[in-house]
């Protein structure tokens, strides 16, 4: 039987590279899984501010609540672009521009969602996107269809 040696001054080598790798992977994981959404209190709200004069007046907020989002549906029939805004048929892009301007004049910025059908060309969808951005909307999104 071999007796343990009395020489106990062996040093322990601590490798730093694996520890740095683990810390880096944790950092990457937490950055990727963190939420980059805007907090709710930073979003614009439709709360009415009290008037400066001191007299209380009722503010009609039903128009503002109607536009949580604006959905523009695009379809093409026989070479003609058919535009619906919140399920209402619009005759042309000029009336779409006027309707968007009227919504934005209420003082709200609802997200505009463009939902083109399969028959609509990319040129027409981008034309509607540019029209919405030209009218002053902050967020214009395209609807994605699940397969």
Description:
There is one protein chain. The chain has 147 residues and is of the alpha/beta class. The chain has a domain at 72-142: Nucleotidyltransferase, domain 5 (2-Layer Sandwich), CATH 3.30.420. The protein is 31% helix and 17% strand. The protein is built from four helices and five strands. The protein has helices spanning 17-33, 62-65, 93-104, 122-134; strands at 70-77, 80-85, 88-90, 112-116, 140-142. Strand 4, helix 4 (122-134) and strand 5 form a beta-alpha-beta unit. It starts with 16 loop residues before the first helix and ends in a 5-residue tail after the last strand. 6% of the residues are buried.
Task: Summarize the helices and strands and which ones pair or pack.
Blueprint: H1 17-33, H2 62-65, E1 70-77, E2 80-85, E3 88-90, H3 93-104, E4 112-116, H4 122-134, E5 140-142
Parallel strand pairs: 1-4, 4-5
Antiparallel strand pairs: 1-2, 2-3
